[in-house]
Amino acid sequence: MVGNPLGPGVSGEWRQLAVDFRACWAPIVQAQDGSTPDGVFDPRLLSPADQEEIQRLSFPGELVPAVLAFSSAMLDWGVVTPTDLRCPTLWLFGSENKNAMDSFKEYKESLQGSRVQVHVIEGFTHPQEFDRIEQVLPVVLAFIRS
User: Fold this and answer.
1) How buried is 6 (Cβ within 10 angstroms: 0-12 exposed, 13-18 middle, 19+ buried)?
2) Cα separation of 16 and 107, whole Å?
3) Cross-strand partners of 2
4) Angle 54-60-61 (CA atoms, 0-180°, nearest 5)?
5) What is the pTM of this model?
6) How many angstroms separate the CA atoms of 4 and 118, rounded?
7) 96: left (phi over 0), alpha (psi -120 to 50) or beta
8) Strand 89-94 with 116-121, pairing
9) Three-class DSSP category at 138
10) For 12-51, what is each residue's pLDDT tens digit?
11) How many Å apart are CA 69 and CA 72, to the nearest integer?
């Protein structure tokens, strides 16, 4: 598990952001389904208002269907606790990832005796957990080899 908290898939303000994102973009993506020969979402086919809206996103507009899929999936995830993880599990996150750190503090006691191995990378934010492969991959490989 890299960068995500235990507990619900998404909660609090992030849950509301995912709900709002799905409410806005699901009908737009669905309406465009099949509009291109290769079936790929094309932001250039959107209305001028939707094109303006897509420019405000923090990621390229072409990724809207992918973000829609994983954010919708997170809304439907059940609560995951350390005892739910029945195989050895690496939980890797950065010390500056507030959601993961808060979750770690909440579940710290129940991690005792679980199959979860925690590895906190000092100073890392959530994006760095994925962008700094030269520091993350050795931890993952060591876990896999153990």
Assistant:
1) buried
2) 23
3) 92
4) 40
5) 0.72
6) 12
7) alpha
8) parallel
9) helix
10) 888 999 999 999 999 988 888 777 777 788 898 999 999 9
11) 5
- Which two three-digit tokens encode residue 113? 């005796």
Task: Please tell me the predicted confidence (pLDDT) of residue 40.
Answer: 83
Cα→Cα distances 13→10, 44, 46, 145, Å = 9, 30, 28, 37
| Positions in the chain short of pLDDT 70 | none
Q: Distance between CA 135 and CA 110 in Å, rounded?
A: 27
**Per-residue b or e along 58-67, where b marks 16 or more CB atoms closer than 10 Å to that residue's CB:** eeebeebbeb
Among the listed residues 141, 39, 33, the one whose alpha carbon sits nearest the alpha carbon of residue 90: 141
- Tokens at 111, concatenated: 């991690």
Hey, CA dihedral for 104, 105, 107, 109, is it positive or negative?
A: positive
What pLDDT does residue 76 have? 87
